[in-house]
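ok so I'm stuck.
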Amino acid sequence: MTASYFSRRWLESLLSPRPPESALGFAPPPHGGMIERWLSRALWESLPNASPGKRGRKPGGSPEDSRALILKPALEENCNELGHVEAGHLLKLMDVVGVVSAFRHFNEGNIFVTASLDRTNFVSPIHAWEYIRMDSRITQVWGSSLETEVTLSAFGLRDRETVRHDVATAYLTYVALDERRHKVTLPPLSLGRASDYRAARLADLRRENRRQEASEAPPLALNATDDPFISDISRLMTRKETNSLGNVFGGVILEMISAAGQQAALRHAGRGPAILARIDRMSFLAPAFVGETVRARALPTKTWKTSMETQVLVEAIAPGDPFHPREIAQCYLVFVRLDETTERPAPVPPWQPTTPQQTQRAEAADIRRQFRASEALQAKNEHTPRLPLWRRCQLFWRDKASRLKRCFWIWMEP
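replied:
not stuck anymore, here's the structure
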């Protein structure tokens, strides 16, 4: 092949690009140049169900291969009385972008169900009509489960304000199932960079702390003596809240948990808004199916100076057996009371336990608070390993070669 052949093919790709075929029906704009063609091809290849080919995705890969990005405007219908986006809506979006990264890692006719959510701290609010940016990647793979790191940020476009501020970082664990609801073994994660090794070690640390905390501070069930203090929310699960197997999405359950916990916090704090500041690690014990009624019950457990903790128990009620609900999830939320005028943290009325079980819940809340402080110190002391010079050079030139190869095939495609 001569240089004129490459020039002719390159000019043809600029003047008359051909849309790629996709199983999802996606196609690039009919007219456009090299930039539109490159963006269309990049979006097409990032789709989880893209048809395989010489540039198709293979199962597994590195954390960068599983990266997913979603931008969504913050609408007023999802905001509270302060104009901030509800935390439950953000948890639902984070579950969506997390499962996209899971499918980018492995998509062979399987599904992913949400198994657990690690501690999530909300450091700043998102106002109405800001753009929500959700970035996720896989941090570690264990057999049939994997953990995704979801970073939530926001930026505004009013008055040319494009400065992005961090909102929260969540770690969600998913389990791969086949059509018969059996676990599927996932391909291992290829760790190449120093930051990937550090993220994998922190994921293993969070997994060990989850097991240790569950043994030292187990959740307590709600009984009849707690009924005067319980706030509950019920919702019928329809087909639009479930996946192909009829399991309810984990994001829907998380949204109900946030709403029930906020209702219990407002009931105790009285006047003034209460915003979600932290959600402790939680695990889904059983799935909820379409046609069932999901009920979330919340109860205050401990109060501090300007914050309070609430316990939320989620149950699924079958249509033909309303007197025997199934427990599907349980977690703890921390809310901060704000002043109505200054929007600054305000004092919270103290919670006085009246039963031995409520006293035990208050003591367990202090244990969980100590666990949070010790885990944050462990993550801070975890240093990023320094790779040898030959490995860093190999990663650098590998990235360069992959980018050049990608541009070459896009230009050469008829």
